[in-house]
Amino acid sequence: MPANLPPEAKAKLAKYSEAKTVEEKIRALEEFISAVPKHKGTENLLLWARRRLAELREELEVKKRKKVGGGPRFFVEKSGAGQVLLLGPPNSGKSSILAALTNAKPEVADYPFTTKTPQAGMVVYEDIQIQLVDTPPLLPWDPDSPVNGKVLGMARNADALLLVFGLDDPSIDETVERVLEMLEDRGIIVSPRRGVVRIVKSREVGGIRVQGSGRLVGLTEDDVRKILSSYRIYNAVVEIEGEVTAEDIEAAVYMNMVRKKALALLNKADMPGAREAFMKAARVLKGRGVPYKPVSALKKLGLDDVPKILFDMLGVLRVYTKQPHKEPDPSPLVLPKGSTVLDVAKAIHKDLARKFKYAKVWGKSVKYPGQRVGPEHVVEDKDVVEIHVR
Ligand SMILES: Nc1nc2c(ncn2[C@@H]2O[C@H](COP(=O)(O)OP(=O)(O)OP(=O)(O)O)[C@@H](O)[C@H]2O)c(=O)[nH]1
Ligand SMILES: [Mg+2]
Description:
It is a single chain. The protein is 36% helix and 23% strand. It has a six-stranded mixed β-sheet, with helices on both faces. It has a five-stranded mixed β-sheet with strand order 15-14-18-16-17. The chain is an alpha/beta fold. The model has no long low-confidence stretch (mean pLDDT 92). It has helices spanning 7-18, 22-35, 43-68, 94-101, 146-157, 172-185, 221-230, 246-254, 274-288, 306-314, 341-348, 350-354, and strands at 83-87, 119-125, 128-134, 160-166, 188-189, 196-201, 208-211, 215-216, 236-241, 243-244, 258-259, 261-267, 292-294, 316-322, 333-336, 356-362, 371-373, 383-389. It has twelve helices and 18 strands. It has three domains: 83-190 and 260-314, Rossmann fold; 192-256, no CATH class; 317-389, Roll (Ubiquitin-like (UB roll)). It binds guanosine-5'-triphosphate and magnesium ion (MG). The site of magnesium ion (MG) has 5 residues, from helix 4.
């Protein structure tokens, strides 16, 4: 349902989006909340605004505390081929999965809230490593808890998500729904069916330009223009992906939307009653187009192919570079899928890219071994690349 905000509420929201400091943002949001009429159509918006306000107040608190001592920070520096975050309700087995897939030794216990701070381990996939990060539990029944905000902040920064649910949860379907909702409420879109919108304000555009691979559903570009001008946005690029509705456009005005690849691990498949719970969870996940699989961290079931799945989720490929008349380097470069040999050169050294003449390639992307290719040639996983310079 569209929010149909009165102009003064829209003006306050515009003020919020233009605010620079945390204090200014807090003031603008408080004014916004009191200007929004309370009805069904504004429910989600108000929910978002209250949570955002709580986060900002927390941020302000942390800033104040830092001046004295410094508070705990939820941040894990990325390493390896990409960062995958374990996310889920208390006691679902996130730490057990970290322990099963990596050589990390997190604390595991049969009571909730065991994990207090994030902890990382490395998953080995063939000749590369993928970082797996365990987090404190999400609280699906207490969406306003500050811990949720911190954990979801990490989710926004991660390269992919593993959503962990316990098949011993009698209301697992509701838990799954709530967790997916918590992610969406903060603009983290895991359902491939949902549209994603990014609004990049820029004076240079001279109007509103809609671009990207997405499709507007139930509205025209002119409607997009009207919606945005009601929020005082007149010059912007609107990048759309997937099926985009008017609500998605409005949501993108007040929050950053990102799409994340996610896989749901339905853990504790060894327990009695797991089958029934699995069917319940599967129904919800299937409806949203989120892939899922049953596993048991305890019995080490269903986990063997997870490293390969994580690699595929990251959307990366490996390239082995070599010098003429020498063997390829055994440790690969990891690059996004769709990278060209020029990207490979750049990843090695910017001089190499500047002086690039041609490359010789061995592997899936070429017809015969050692084929000569130009800078725009797209490489594939496990290609060997030899770069020749001028
Ligand atoms: N039967 C069974 N028990 C499991 C499985 N995985 C984890 N457990 C148990 O479930 C309990 C919770 O496991 P943890 O790995 O600590 O769960 P967590 O999600 O990290 O919990 P928090 O850190 O509190 O959020 C422990 O008693 C584990 O031994 C499993 O596959 N099968
Ligand atoms: Mg834990």
